[in-house]
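Entry 12.
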Amino acid sequence: MPLQLSNIVGTNAAGAFFYFYPRVKALTQKQDLLFQIAITCIPGVGDVIAKNLISYCGSPEQVFLQKKSKLLRIPGIGEKLANSILSFNNFSKAETEIEFIEKHQIQPLFYLDKAYPYRLKNYLESPVMLYYLGNADLNASKIVGIVGTRKASDYGKAFVDELCAGLADTGCIILSGLAYGIDIQAHRAAIKNKLPTVGVMAHGLDRIYPGQHKATAKKMLEYGGLLTEFTSGSNPDRENFPKRNRIVAGLCDVLVVAETATSGGAMITAEIANYYNKEVMALTGRVNEIYSQGCNLLIKKNKAAIITGVNDLIELMNWDLPISKPQQQQLHLGLNEEEQKIINYIRQKQKTGIDDISFELEMDPGMLSFILLDMEFRGILRQLPGKFFELV
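Predicted 3D structure (tokens):
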């Protein structure tokens, strides 16, 4: 049964919202979800500001309970945003979304939830809310993003088919954007090779865009899933696609650019992946082919490694190297507390990636990269292909 907002929110003489439900130690899951969705609906409040508000106020619910004077003390909140928060009354949109979620068995993922993809947790601009329909594990150990032009050539399509066939034994997830060309080729090749595949969409889960891909999307629910940050009713507007691209870049371990011109969505995704310190690979092509020029440019600028086949990817990601047997570890003296935590974690795992270290030890990825580099210079650990680390 849907929430009755009239039982939760009322209006006093001054027009401020207050709450009639009993004060208990924990809100019900549905009430939590109402406020989590509602904060994403406030005009002018994006992911970064929403997280800042929640951090200062303690929870999404508390954001709506603050006085203006308190809101104005929060960094990044000025007069205009404070008024936008205080005047917000469109809780019905959040209620409608909850009904849609329940009807279609969609999994809502709030950025502080344990099930939220840990690869995205470290990025300030990652979505506050995700909506997921599927059965693939978004925290799987291996995720390969494949992107490229909507006007894919036979050369690009054949490469994607061969790559997915070669990855079949790795059990990795194939991630893409469900668009024409390289994207849909990647999803279909993954299904053909029994690999889970997840499509990240630039609109709500109430539709499939483009419509010609509905049959493939239906199969993807058996072999993977569909993921979006947009509520139902959201159209595939132009500005949504770069936002979609940051999820693809952040969620994968390695991004493969199969074919692209020197501008476009695939190049944006590659730039974001580089910014996120992800491995990027690009398929070379003829210099006079417009949809190879972007890939060649990425390689030329050292923003992507060359990929000619699956072996290049497996070698770069260090996926074909067996985990070494436990060895007697030497003692490392003079370590500070953070360095000792890193040593203990790597010793337990024997080799591990930077994203895992950052997530498990709750360390800022930028600072962690600096610490790991310093420890590498001091001969305490070494970096393996794929940004894995092991003790020396």
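Annotation: The chain has three domains: 5-103, 132-317, 337-391. Residues 91-104 form the longest helix (14 residues).
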